[in-house]
Structure prediction request, 177 residues.
Amino acid sequence: MDLEELREIMGRASKSAFRLETLPQYLVPQEEAAFTAWRAGESRPPRTPENSMWLARLRDYVAGGMRWYRVHILDYPLSDYSRFELGGYLENQAVGEEIHIADRAEHAELEPLREDFWLIDDEFAVRMVYDDEGHFLHPESIDDVVPYLTIRETALRCAEPLDEFIARRKPQLSTGA
Prediction:
């Protein structure tokens, strides 16, 4: 499978798109400049549907009745990237994506969950393969979706909404503890 095939599957989605994220960082070219600036102490320029094609598309999917949601399982101490990414999640949430955060240390059943994937309409599962540093390598189609439905339910059961997570962890988010 390649990225174009993944885009086609996602383009045909009609009910839902779920993403599980498990890595401490995702080193993708489209975020490199913003992440570097953020690490240097600069404010993150706000993304809106007016200046981000992705947020405009996400807003339109949700407005059309699709459920977009994700769980990111975090490990501590939080990486710089994880703290940076939480700010980006707020922008996704503002256009209708449901963002959930889970603390691996608080839930033993999350320990083995180390694979990133998409579930599309509960019918298609696609594993997202990264190298050890968080560079995306390729998507892989998964034949048996059932185990991934179970993993999703476990992750959701252990997660809390983004706003609650941020409110509960605010001091740790600023210090990296």
